[in-house]
């Protein structure tokens, strides 16, 4: 006796993007760019700095003082690191502290201006 089995198979056709799909993608990307409310640009920062290092035997600290001038404003960043830390730990601590402070000093004014402008436009 012969038995017949019938199966339904769904065939999915996979194609490369068509010109129309690419055009639609470009339109969506442009719409996303157009929906940006505002942007900030940090172009010019006149920056000069120097690092001073000394060891404090009483507190067992390596003391670092990064003194810099950016856009005419002078700032000092003190960083204290225990002297039993490795050289890599000292470097990491100093870079982290200096980078954070310099970034704040560099970006605070333009970001504050931008956010006030955007908030004004959004809240109206």
Features:
alpha+beta; 124 residues; 2 helices
Give the terminus-to-terminus CA distance.
82 Å
Strand content: 15-25%
Overall outline: elongated
Tell me the major beta sheet: 3 strands, antiparallel
The neighbouring-strand order within the major sheet is: 1-2-3
Low-confidence stretches: none
Helix content: 40-55%
Structural class: alpha+beta
String of helices and strands? HEEEH
Q: Mean pLDDT score, rounded? A: 81
> Oligomerization state of this entry?
single chain
How many β-strand runs?
3
Number of helices: 2
Q: Give me the Rg, rounded.
A: 29 Å
Can you describe what's shown?
This protein has 124 residues and is an alpha+beta fold. The protein has a domain at 47-123. 43% of the residues lie in helices and 24% in strands. It has helices spanning 19-34, 87-123; strands at residues 47-56, 61-70, 73-82. A hairpin with a 2-residue loop joins β2 and β3 (73-82). It is elongated, with a radius of gyration of 29 Å. It starts with 18 loop residues before the first helix and ends with a helix. The model has no long low-confidence stretch (mean pLDDT 81).
């Amino acid at each position: 006796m012969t038995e017949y089995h019938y199966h339904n198979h769904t065939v999915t056709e996979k194609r490369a993007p068509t010109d129309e799909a690419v055009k639609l993608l470009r339109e969506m990307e442009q719409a996303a760019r157009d929906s940006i409310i505002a942007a900030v640009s940090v172009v010019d920062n006149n920056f000069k700095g120097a690092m001073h290092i000394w060891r404090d035997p009483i507190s067992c600290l390596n003391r670092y003082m990064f003194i810099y001038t950016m856009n005419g404003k002078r700032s000092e960043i003190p960083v204290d690191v225990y002297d039993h830390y490795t050289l890599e730990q000292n470097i990491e601590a100093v870079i982290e502290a200096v980078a954070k402070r310099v970034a704040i000093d560099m970006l605070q004014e333009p970001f504050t201006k931008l956010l006030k402008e955007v908030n004004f436009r959004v809240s109206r």
